[in-house]
């Protein structure tokens, strides 16, 4: 199966301080990897580097065969829009858009708005009744589900999920992880999940731990 993500010898520093180095990881279609690691070790930074949202100091990141570290910012933005779904730890929903419009944004940006697909995702994350509400009227767990629905709505090839169940009760978290896993396995996507939750990580095919000098089982 083709590799959707290939990370080779990735290194990241902030000034003189090394966050991580020697990080290599390959994911093919249908693969789901969970990354654990102590707080501050660089898990969110790694996801940002994969998405081209942060610079890297060494190594390469190929997404569906394209090295994102060698693209211009505009080219990276197009690749993110077409290939990536990102569940940010801090949600990053747009405050002036309704829940439905936030979820539909990736489709709109690709010039293929689809209200039916948005409705399907809102149903799947249990937010259909809140479709017209503004984000500021939602709870943290509801916002997290908006972020998950938005990351899946355009059926991206690569899903990067940063602690996507951190604000959810155990039952809702299980349902959201099942939704994420179904997207990966039924649609041939690949997912990198960053989490502190062993329950969430149990949905993955492989569980790896990030340390300063690399990533390993
Ligand atoms: N813009 C920045 N400038 C300098 N240091 C940074 C910057 N962003 C992150 N860091 C540092 O990089 C390290 C990795 O941060 P990161 O948020 O990736 O960790 P994490 O493993 O995701 O943590 P957590 O599990 O607590 O969310 C931390 O020590 C953090 O302080």
UniProtKB/TrEMBL annotation:
InterPro entries: AAA+_ATPase, ABC_transporter-like_ATP-bd, ABC_transporter-like_CS, ABC_transpr_LolD-like, MacB-like_ATP-bd, P-loop_NTPase. Coiled coil: none annotated. Residues 5-216 form the ABC transporter domain. The keyword Nucleotide-binding applies. One of its GO terms (molecular function) is ATP binding. Keywords: ATP-binding, Cell membrane, Membrane, Nucleotide-binding, Transport. This is ABC transporter ATP-binding protein. It comes from Piscinibacter gummiphilus.
